[in-house]
Amino acid sequence: MKAAATEEIEAGPPPSAPAAPVQPRPGRPLTDADYERLAEFRYLLRRFLAFSEAAAGETGLTHQQHQALLMIRGFSGPQDMTVGALAERLGIRHHSAVGLVGRLHSRHLIRRHGNSADRRQVLISLTPEAEALLDGLTLAHRDELTRLAPLLSNLLRQFSG
To answer: 97, 86 in Cβ contact below 8 A?
Structure first.
């Protein structure tokens, strides 16, 4: 089995996934412009995600590992992030997050420690090595978003009009 295959993470349904097919709402009929705007929005999102995946790969991280590091670093809770919170933020199952955390720990990118208030919880935080990797990736992502911002802003304005 290839190394990349071990990074496949079993994902649960997105938190806001509809349970049944979406039914059209009464109101203004859809136009060709509606479809064009939505297609363009999806295209820009995919371009950004492709950029993100390539940037992570250049540092030796998988896209999922990069996302995990970003979620841990950007977590603003009262304590370090838990494995359960990481699973929720990544939209994956808890046991998949445990495996991801294990792989990041074995690469010395995160620290695991117990929660003194709740011994069932494992808290996770970044190592200095992970912080340095993430700093470079975040700068690159900020630059890419700065480049895409005018396109996205214009497109989103059209949705509200």
So the answer is: yes
Residues 6 or more apart in contact with residue 155 via CB below 8 angstroms: 37, 40, 41, 44
Distances (CA, A) of 83 to 95, 122, 129, 155: 9, 6, 20, 36
Is the distance from CB of 12 to CB of 93 less than 8 angstroms? yes
Half-sphere exposure of 61 (CA within 13 A, CB side): 26
Question: 14-52 pLDDT, tens per residue?
Answer: 555 556 677 767 778 889 999 999 999 999 999 999 999
114 is written with which tokens? 């117990």
The C-alpha atoms of residue 7 and residue 138 are separated, in whole angstroms, by 21
Tell me the three state secondary structure of residue 26: coil
Is the entire prediction scored with pTM above 0.90? Answer: no
